[in-house]
Amino acid sequence: MRILKTLIIAFSIIGATFASTGNRCNEDYECGIGYPYAACNGGLNVYPGISMDGNDNLIIAGKFNSSQGGPFGLPKMFNIPITSDGAQISERIDIHGEIQGGAGSFNLYSFYDYLPKSNYYYVLMNQGGSAPIFSLIDGNTARNEVKYVFNIFNTPFVPIFDDIEKSMIYGAYGIYKLNKLPIQRSDAQDAILIYQSQVVNGLAKDGKDLYMSTYDGKFLKGTIDCLNCSKDQLVQIGNDTNASHLTDFLVEGDLMVFSYSNGIIGYSKSGNSSSAIQLITGENVISMVSNKGTIYYTTKDGIVKSIGIDGKNGTTLYTPTSNHQCQSAVGFQSTDGVCKGKTLWYNGIPTCTPINDGGVPAQCYTSSDCGSTPYFTCNGSCGCVNNFSGLDCTHCDGNVEWLNGIPSCQIPK
After folding, report:
1. Which residues contact 162 (CB under 8 A, 6 or more apart)?
2. How would DSSP label each residue in 202-256?
3. Cys staple from 376: which of 156, 338, 358, 370, with CB 3.0 to 4.6 Å?
4. CB-based burial of residue 204 (10 Å sphere; 0-12 exposed, 13-18 middle, 19+ buried)?
5. 410: part of which helix (H) or strand (E)?
6. Torsions phi, psi for 400 (to 5 deg)
């Protein structure tokens, strides 16, 4: 489970090293024609969220700064080995599909989970600066492009996944189950209501048992076998006011564990003890994942650490840093500024987007990016003004009327 957070962390403290090849750089001017068409990777911005790949690697999402400062290039998924301290972090996949500017902007916000058997990455995207979109990156495809799944605007959405049973349980205005891993918008129609009306900020599963936390700091227990049950059938097994503003929640061993702005706290999931176990204190913890009695977590500063569920053997695995490698701006064929498409600009940084049939770019920030005529609209990609069609959006099966320079296609009734 991954809690929605606004943090993206940016700084360049030297820590664990990167596995990298090629010439090393320290400044943008050392890369091709330089900034803004190319940059030398600076500190890594680490997004909220952490997962595991089933092969002793942690997975985090991030985007490098340029040496000029500020995020640059494609977001990526990274591997961090858990087998030894100071091991090399390596790039796992590039993430395609972000749209930097305009009303249709679409940007990575946080990372929910990775499912190794399905090779799915579930992420949260931000559309238009305010609309959260539950999204999928299918690692079985060549391009690793983000795909829209659900619009979760104004929804207290908390998902957990089962890669073996191929299912998802999620909290919204109620607790729901999908007997499939969602890959498209219509999958939401197949959701089964487990518990009515219950709103949660944390959710975890252990076998058939469901554990959850609420916005008023209660810990509840239920079962995945419930069907349209009233929320008063949930059993309260504890409470902690700090859990009202938790950042993540999981179960490991006999513990329910939650993270918050001052550390990590565990409670017995049996409900037999009301005593809190303070595993970490004084750290702003953003996200967690656990395995075999160890909790791996990220902090507000993007540092990746681990701690045993007994509160011992704390280790720092990664501190955000540069890999001292050059990268081109998004979509460009080289660091020399070669674009085989159309160059779009946002906040002084270019993006090269392919040209589709009819000479229309695959992405747009404004309608003027689509063409010089008023027949186009732009919401991240180019479209036609209502009722118009065709590659140049000028075809109308009715009468064209004009008002203040804007065409309208009136279809006879």
Report:
1. 168, 169, 205
2. EEEEETTEEEEE-TTSEEEEEETT--SB-GGGSEEEEE-GGGGG-SEEEEETTEE
3. 370
4. buried
5. strand 406-410
6. -90, 125
Please count the other Cβ atoms lying within 10 Å of the Cβ belonging to residue 52: 18
pLDDT tens track for 159-199: 999 999 999 999 999 999 999 999 999 999 999 999 999 99
Q: Are 378 and 346 in contact (CB under 8 A)?
A: no
* Percentage of residues in the chain having pLDDT higher than 90: 85
- Would you give the distance in Å from CA 406 to the centre of its chain? 38
User: Hey, is 290 helix, strand or coil?
Assistant: strand
CB of 314 closer than 8 Å to CB of 335: no
Q: How far is CA 319 from CA 12, 52, 262, in A?
A: 9, 18, 19
Structure tokens at 112: 């929910």
How far is the C-alpha of 250 from the C-alpha of 247, rounded, in Å? Answer: 11
Q: Say if CB 198 and CB 171 are below 8 A apart.
A: yes
- Full DSSP string of 43-58: EEEEPS--EE-SSSEE
Q: Using a pLDDT cut of 70, give the percent of the chain over it.
A: 93
Measured distance CA(256)–CA(249) in Å, rounded: 7
Half-sphere exposure of 343 (CA within 13 A, CB side): 12
Element (H, E) at 106: strand 106-115
Residue 210 makes CB contacts below 8 A (sequence gap 6+) with 169, 175, 194, 203, 204, 221, 222, 223, 224
The three-state secondary structure class of 86 is: coil
Distance, in Å, from the CA atom of 244 to the CA atom of 200, rounded to the nearest integer, reads 10
Sheet with 158-162: strands ordered across = 158-162, 167-172, 174-178, 192-196
Q: Is the peptide bond before 159 cis (omega within 30 degrees of 0)?
A: no
Q: Does the pTM of the predicted model rise above 0.85?
A: yes
Neighbours of 148 (CB within 10 A): 15
Q: What is the dihedral of CA 45, 51, 54, 55, to 10 degrees?
A: 30
- Cβ partners under 8 Å of residue 279, min gap 6: 257, 263, 264, 265, 266, 295, 307, 309, 311
- Measure the CA–CA gap between 251 and 210, rounded to whole angstroms: 10
User: By CB neighbour count within 10 A (0-12 exposed, 13-18 middle, 19+ buried), where does 220 fall?
Assistant: buried
